[in-house]
Amino acid sequence: MEDTKVVYAFNLLTGEYEGPKTLDNTDRSPISGAWQIPCNMIEVAPPEIQEGHKWLWDGTQWIIKEVEKPKEPEIPEATHAPEKPSQAPSLSERIAALEDAVNTLMEGAATNG
To answer: Where are the domains of the chain?
Structure first.
């Protein structure tokens, strides 16, 4: 009887190949001795992969998919001088805004309660 067994793991949500895993005797049924292979692993090895591609398990076979390359962000051309950052509100302006918000909430609670 084999002491270990190599299986091939994939992501249950995406199907993406995660690599080989080695099962040992703790992965055998204590009654029959049969291998108990987790649901995200299979015995079928994926073929060799080309760079820029990945393997996905579709439930019956491995399919190859090209890896999407991340798009480089476009850098807008400067057409004018950068704007000055806006000045943060003063402490008294922030307190007034908080008081307005609390009063609005309290009025709503009084009419709904």
So the answer is: 5-66
Q: Is the pLDDT of residue 42 over 90?
A: yes
8-23 b/e (C-beta count within 10 Å ≥ 16 → b): bbbeeeebebeeeeeb
Rounded distance between C-alpha atoms, residue 60 and residue 49, angstroms? 18
Strand, coil or helix: what is 104?
helix
Q: Provide the token pair at 23.
A: 């099962």
Residue 87 CB coordination number (10 Å): 6
Higher pLDDT, residue 63 or 86: 63
Nearest to 5 by CA among 33, 30, 40, 37: 37
pLDDT cut 90: percent of the chain above it = 49
Q: What is the pTM of this model?
A: 0.57
- Amino acid identity at 82: P
Q: Where are the alpha helices (DSSP H) in 67-90?
A: none
